[in-house]
Amino acid sequence: MDALELLSQQLKIKSLGKIAKELEVSKSSLCLIRSKKYPNPQKMYSRIVDKYGNKQEIIGISVSSVDELEDLANLIKDIECI
Prior knowledge:
Layout: H1 3-11, H2 16-23, H3 27-34, H4 42-52, H5 66-81
Helix pairs in contact: 1-4, 2-3
């Protein structure tokens, strides 16, 4: 999804002012981006994609025994060595 699509998606659920605060830019800048009149918009597009683009997070891992916890700890150590 490109930056303008991500911005449009966010505007469906948030105000322009809230998005401007999240991106640390002015509302006027966002209006210019939306109307495709922003001069040299690549930095702004990058900012939008970095903030609202697809990201995956690991929220939590459930273990049911000490052995599983130790296995998980060893796996993390192995990953850090890669």
